[in-house]
Design brief:
The chain is α/β, with parallel strands linked by helices and about 110 residues long. The protein has helices at about 40-50, 70-75; strands at about 5, 10-15, 25-30, 35-40, 55-60, 80-85, 100. The chain has one domain (about 5-105): Aldolase class I (TIM Barrel, Alpha-Beta Barrel), CATH 3.20.20.70. Helix content is about 15%, strand content about 30%. It has a five-stranded mixed sheet, with helices on one face. The longest helix is centred in the middle third of the chain and has 10 residues, at about 40-50. The radius of gyration is 14 Å and the shape is globular. The termini are far apart.
Length: about 110
């Protein structure tokens, strides 16, 4: 069964911070907005491949309950290095090469989620 996501249009840009700064990447922001594009994990991976960047950066910090593993697996299968930005409220159990955590709640404690 295919996994679908609401995403903003994919863009190419240069990462501006951290250890991956100055690398050209494809940015995919998973969103709740109904005005965004509904794409399958396979379609997102294909589009990222067409943009010919080595890295795909997935933003999911405003959508913490979405299972991103099908998307990240497809990106890895397509030969992409994967970076994920999340709010840290979910355990990361899928293939990522780089993980960026931006806590949404400063009072968050991992023990509370177990």
């Amino acid at each position: 069964m295919a996994s679908y996501y609401l995403v903003e249009p994919l863009t190419t840009g240069v990462q501006s911070e951290g250890a991956l700064a100055f690398l050209t990447m494809t940015f995919a922001k998973i969103s709740r907005a109904r005005t965004h594009i509904c794409m399958s994990a396979e379609e997102i991976a294909q589009e990222c491949g067409k943009l010919q960047n080595e890295w795909s950066w997935v933003y999911a910090f405003d959508y913490p309950t979405t299972d991103l593993s099908p998307l990240l697996v497809r990106l890895k299968e397509a030969g992409q290095n994967t970076a994920l930005r999340t709010d840290g409220s979910q355990m990361v159990q899928f293939p990522v090469d780089w993980l960026s955590v931006k806590p949404a709640n400063p009072d968050f404690c991992a023990e509370d989620r177990q």
